[in-house]
Specification:
Blueprint lengths: L2 E5 L2 E4 L4 E8 L7 E8 L6 E7 L4 E3 L7 E6 L5 E8 L8 E9 L15 E2 L3 E6 L1
Amino acid sequence: QVTLVETGGGSVQAGGSLNLSCEASLRYAYTVYCMAWFRQAPGKSREGVASIDIDGGSNLADSVKGRFTISLHGADRAGKTMRLSMTALKPEDTAMYYCAARTGVCGYSDLLSTTRFRDWGQGTLVTVSP
């Protein structure tokens, strides 16, 4: 059983910052997991934002490079906190942000489709006003 819980969403004006966290309880302590952030704006499909694996590999979508940072914390391999630090926020960043996890190392292609990820959190809403 993998449990993912997102926190940290909220409302901010354009140019502001927010930090999202995903508390993860992973099933296997000695398995590499890829964890990712996806977002879904109203009326749009879910898109990949950033991913990171326990071995330290990370990827960012082109739309957030230079503004968002992803990091992984926690010494316990079965319990991790993934953080997304978002700066210079734009109204187009407004979306529900979801945490996702799967076994294996991350690759950039993980951000191109939701189908690789079986486990998802409930989401946290980010609203950026002009």
